[in-house]
Amino acid sequence: MSSQPTARPHFVREHFHPLEIFPYFRRWPSSVARDFIYTFIWNCQFAVFFYAMGAFTGGAMPSLHAFGIYLLISNIIGYSIHLLFDLGAALNIDMAARRTGFGAKVAYFTAVPLAGVLIGLWLSSYIVDVGLRGIFTDLGALLSIASVSLVISVVMSVIFFWRERGAVADAALARERERVERVERETVTANLRALQAQIEPHFLFNTLANVTSLIDSDPATARRMLESFIRFLRSSLGATRAESTTLADEGELMAAYLDVLQIRMGQRLRYEIDIPPELHAFQLPPMLLQPVVENAIRHGLEPKMDGGVVKVCARRDDGAVVIEISDSGAGFAEMTRGGVGLTNLRDRLRLLYGDRASLAIGESEVGGASVTMTLPA
């Protein structure tokens, strides 16, 4: 597996909004509409804060009309800051500031709110006439604006620096999780190869021994067995070298495998493979079915004197593909329910599909065992 690039912290406008410091607001994914609404809520909080400060310093509760003015001006200033941060992200100014160092980041997150406050007040002076135009020539008023801007800048800087530290920690956690999953995938693959290495020599030697014993007594059957075995080897070697296969190819592999076993077991083994044409091209990992079919033969039919039937069926069910392998044999003993083959298969499904795939073991309708795999379509 190729190495992935190191994740970098994402706290630019399109990825993070200050309102997300509250867990409730993290449930919706980032979008233009969501951030626009979040900024409105954020601005209203500042309006309430400054309205309360006005009541505290003035000794009396300002009128609702005054609150409306606070609300309007806070939103004009807030959206001005919002647009400036969007512009900085679009021009990669924020990324350049973060790469330059701590001082550049502090300057950037201080300058943007200050500029947003000045622009917002300038725009507000043309929308509502509450004496805002004169403040740009009043030193005391400018100092007051600078104080307000400093408060906003400190709030914004704390939020964004906190988010940066969280993003760095999240990136490190994601890298560690990816490393663990890669190790698990490699372990499962190694276990699968070890299992195949155990299965194939055993199957190979038994088959060749059977062919040898049939050459003199029944050459036609020996020829049929050898042809089926060649089909199995051809399909098996192709499957083990590929990252994925089709359900039709897996069905052909199982048919060749069961043909060989049927010649060896005679009337004690019968099989059915039912894969609808519309599922022939369905992609799935190779060698998913063989461990289950082999378990059905080894633990289900071979211990039973009169053998039985193995069925491989596939169907589409509510956005998923369900593959069921059942037999009419002795059924699974408790010790075989968690055998190496099925354990590896369950681990492979979990690593490849997560919670979207499942493996269920139960009793078939005819009394044997049934293994059902559900794969996402």
Describe this structure in words.
- The chain is of the alpha+beta class.
- The chain has ten helices and seven strands.
- The chain has helices at residues 32-58, 64-90, 93-100, 102-127, 139-217, 219-240, 247-265, 290-301, 334-337, 340-353; strands at 245-246, 269-274, 283-284, 308-317, 320-327, 358-363, 369-376.
- Strands 2-4-5-7-6 form a five-stranded mixed sheet, with helices on one face. The protein has a two-stranded antiparallel ribbon with strand order 1-3.
- A hairpin with a 5-residue loop joins strand 6 and strand 7 (369-376).
- The longest helix has 79 residues, at 139-217.
- The protein is rod-shaped.
- It starts with 31 loop residues before the first helix and ends with a strand.
- The model is unreliable at 1-14 and 334-338 (pLDDT under 50).
Round the Cα radius of gyration to an integer and report it: 35 Å
Helix content class: 55-70%
Principal-axis shape equals rod-shaped
Q: How does the major sheet shape up? A: 5 strands, mixed
| Parts with pLDDT < 50 across at least 5 consecutive residues | 1-14, 334-338
**What's the arrangement of strands in the largest beta sheet?**
2-4-5-7-6
First-to-last CA distance: 24 Å
Strand content: 5-15%
Structural class: alpha+beta
Please give the oligomerization state of what you see: single chain
> What is the H/E order?
HHHHHHEHEEHEEHHEE
Strand element count? 7
Q: What is the count of helical runs?
A: 10
How confident is the prediction overall: mean pLDDT?
Answer: 78
